Amino acid sequence: xxxxxxxxxxxxxxxxxxxxxxxxxxxxxxxxxxxxxxxxxxxxxxxxxxxxxxxxxxxxxxxxxxxxxxxxxxxxxxxxxxxxxxxxxxxxxxxxxxxxxxxxxxxxxxxxxxxxxxxxxxxxxxxxxxxxxxxxxxxxxxxxxxxxxxxxxxxxxxxxxxxxxxxxxxxxxxxxxxxxxxxxxxxxxxxxxxxxxxxxxxxxxxxxxxxxxxxxxxxxxxxxxxxxxxxxxxxxxxxxxxxxxxxxxxxxxxxxxxxxxxxxxxxxxxxxxxxxxxxxxxxxxxxxxxxxxxxxxxxxxxxxxxxxxxxxxxxxxxxxxxxxxxxxxxxxxxxxxxxx
Length: 340
Ligand SMILES: [Zn+2]
Ligand SMILES: [Zn+2]
Description:
The chain is α/β, with parallel strands linked by helices. Helices cover 23% and strands 25% of the residues. The chain has 2 domains: 3-152 and 290-339, Medium-chain alcohol dehydrogenases, catalytic domain (Quinone Oxidoreductase, Chain A, domain 1), CATH 3.90.180; 164-287, NAD(P)-binding Rossmann-like Domain (Rossmann fold).
């Protein structure tokens, strides 16, 4: 009997254990992926700790999956996929096709979105079975460890920027230089925005410049971040990648008139924003959800074209627990990626 290895969480908050599982055949409309790499995302904590509703344990997280197709269910070849194709499956792990948003073609806000690790076992494993509509083709010059994180961290920042109101030349600030933000700064610069990186500490200034930022704002320097942004003319868009409501709220007065705050840093804490900070200036605060498999493909093509790669540290699947702890502690620069 053919088996594969997976890093599973036996119960909520229970820590990872490596198990052998029986290899599954993909059903109709599904494909099996021989996983080569899978990124560890901060939102994986929501899976591991059992914080999301409707999770079932034991659970295999992982929604930054990169690998090769090694078996196709009925109807998948007809969609243009072949065994051996290199693919990513990200946060968008497929949509239901029948809810109102799917019928409107807005698949990323599907009411029954199938997130790997939630709707089905995710990529902290040597094998994953996923619906064909979740597959994104990897360009030749991206490695699996570079491609995986683009399925969540990459597409969320890339799409968050390109779906914003920012036009080339506009002042765009990226709040935070972490797993999301380090890609956000690179994308913002490559998209032609006058790019501001905002982070904590003078020591990040050099990193911000290396990532392509034209300006750096040290949020610990004493001058309020909003004031620093207004000194640059006011931000047309701020992409908030930190999961820190106080830091997010502090940029609002740094927005230009008609400026837009795009929130992708996940946290449950309320943001202290007064209506009067928004009304007269016509400012917008908006949440942004990731992107579909086509958006992931667009993200990877843009990244390959502009030589943009996530900065990653890799660890073998066997070290899933240590790699997960390193990612969550904030010590990783900037994405931990498990390799199979
Ligand atoms: Zn994620
Ligand atoms: Zn749907």
